[in-house]
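Page 47, continued from p. 46.
Same chain as before, 287 aa.
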Amino acid sequence: MRLKVVIIVFLLLPLVFSFQSENKSFITLGIVAPLEKDSLINASGFKLMGESVSKMISPSLSEEKFRQNLELIKKLKTKLYMCNVMFPGDMKIAGPDVNETTVLAYANRLFARAQQAKIKVIVLGSGTARRLPDDYDLKKATADFITLSKKIAVTAAKYQVKIALENLQSKETNFINTVKSAAEIVRLVDHPNFKLNADIFHMRRAHEPPQNIIEAKDLLIHCEIAEDAERTLPGIKGDDFTPYIEALKIAKYKGPIFVEAGSNYSDAQMALCFKYLNKQIENVYKN
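Result:
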């Protein structure tokens, strides 16, 4: 009898491993969305979610409001992994009007709250905060931004938080518009807590090639995505992200891909988004 059981188990093993392989998650998917959509996000299949700094952990929030947010985070079905829009628009981080003391004090309070909320990644997009005056010296702006970023990174390390510098299309800012230019800055900051976010939506808007992801593979900790024409959820218009997903595969990217699109979507669209994007990822990684 024992021998028969062993034989049956031995014969079933390939089927078990095949089933596991078929259901393997090659890249963890997350989505930037309001906390109120937590149940829908979880039911759709997403494992991670993101919210804005201003809503969740900003130093401008009262202590009471922040404590309320911490309680909400504890009850989430989906892990709150990241927050974006690190700096408010009226706090300049590049150009002639930067107040370093104010910026660093803000960063210190922000990262302290991020640590309490167990948020690991803060995306540094903040297009208005980093917009430069017309005709401002780009070399000076870049050098000053690198100096400031080094100091911010040291503060982030104190609280075990990582910053992901984001490329933004020219419609949103006139400073750091490509993954290539963001990667150059990250290399010069040269700190383990200051890394790169490759936003594929902005890359496609800027006609930036997937190759730039591969060339920045050692810096990449975060990735974001949305459809090109109207920044819709993947699957709504049917955009093909294959070349960029292939670049992530070649780069041996280990982080998540976060959908960052508009917030007016239905339950069905959310579920479609997860399946559609996951299918494109599977098609790339299985080949």
